[in-house]
Write a structure and sequence with these properties.
single chain; three-stranded mixed sheet; 23% strand; Rossmann fold; alpha/beta
Length: 209
């Protein structure tokens, strides 16, 4: 069953589960093509602009422990933000079976390449309890203007956010991948706000208090 935000029905409310799976699969392919079409210099400049927007965001400034990600393929690169704020406690995930993640401190000297291509923390590092996280910087293949995320289909971020109710999450993507409306399931979790190279967009904050 699909859900609503702010009493505005999604255009996908009547899509059946099997059709929704195929729809998301098609959208992922289209969004990957869009992202791959963005020139490398544009992605690099956009990533720097996004880092600066996050830098000036009040919730980022207040956060002490920040869950971020290691960029892969053409994702927005937040490594310059990490380098600019070494005083903050940065944590990154190792993915686990059943669409779960375990968090560890970010240590650039202790990263391991996963078979999917992304860098993960060495599991010898101490685990960080999810309840210690103040802010999640959530990468998305695409987002819509209501905060719904299109990922790669693993459900890792939705499960994590569901396990820590009320945790602030900032969606991270390029403006070319912000859609008017994306399909979503009842178990999906929308982000609090969205950042692109054009700035930060707060999303129905009154719905998430």
């Amino acid at each position: 069953m699909l859900v609503r935000i702010n009493n505005h029905p999604s255009m996908y409310n009547h899509v059946m589960p099997d059709d929704l799976y195929e729809l998301k699969k098609k959208l992922r392919s289209q969004c990957m093509d869009i992202r791959e079409s963005l020139p490398a210099d544009f992605r690099s400049n956009a990533s720097l602009q996004i880092c600066q927007h996050i830098n000036h965001w009040g919730k980022f400034q207040e956060a002490g422990v920040i869950f971020t990600y290691m960029p892969m393929n053409e994702e927005v690169d937040l490594l310059s933000l990490i380098a600019e704020f070494p005083q903050k406690e940065w944590v990154i995930p190792r993915i686990q079976p059943h669409s779960r993640m375990i968090l560890y401190p970010y240590d650039p000297e202790k990263l391991i390449r996963h078979r999917f291509g992304m860098l993960e923390p060495d599991p010898s590092l101490p685990k960080v309890p999810p309840g210690q996280v103040d802010l999640v910087l959530a990468p998305g293949l695409a987002y819509d203007r209501q905060g719904w995320r299109l990922g790669y289909g693993g459900g890792f971020y939705d499960n994590f956010l569901a396990d820590v109710p009320g945790l602030a999450a900032l969606g991270v993507t390029y403006s070319a991948l912000v859609m008017d409306d994306l399909p979503h399931n009842s178990h999906d979790i929308p982000v609090l706000a969205l950042v692109t190279e054009k700035g930060i967009m707060d999303i129905y904050m009154e719905q998430k208090n």
